Amino acid sequence: MWVARVAEGYVFGELTAAAVETLRGVPMLIESTDERVRARLLPETCIEPEDEQHWREHAVPELERLFLSRATLVRRDLETLRKLPDSGLHALLITHEHTNAWLAALNAARLALYVLNDLTAEHMETEGFSGATQKQQEAIVRISLLAELQAVLLGEFEVGDDEASVEDLVDE
User: Which structural domain range is residue 125 located in?
Assistant: First the structure.
């Protein structure tokens, strides 16, 4: 995978079929009704039961709408995936306007993958990978991919500014 910063945002190129499948799963993970996912994304926040009830009644519906709007935006952006000529690989543009939504969606998807695959902190260590089941290893790889995209969007990786536009980098 390569990344370029363009006027519109960030272009992630040479995305494999597995990477595209992982990205297409992000909205579904955010929208999951699995109780483990819901508990991880919307944890108990108050000590007093009455305060928790108030939180659940008033704040949680707004947070759920926010998750759904992020899922919708990510899904819409994924519809713009472009197939790179001669390789079968893909490129994705994440515009500057969508960066915050993507960051939140990627983080929520990582949390969902973690709980859905019964991962522990030990699994996320280098030595823990070999002790994980095949399904858990696949989840760890997907979590790592999503974390790499987050790191780029957060500016943790040096990505040079390019005068090019997305069309200059990706021929249809």
Answer: 24-80+97-157
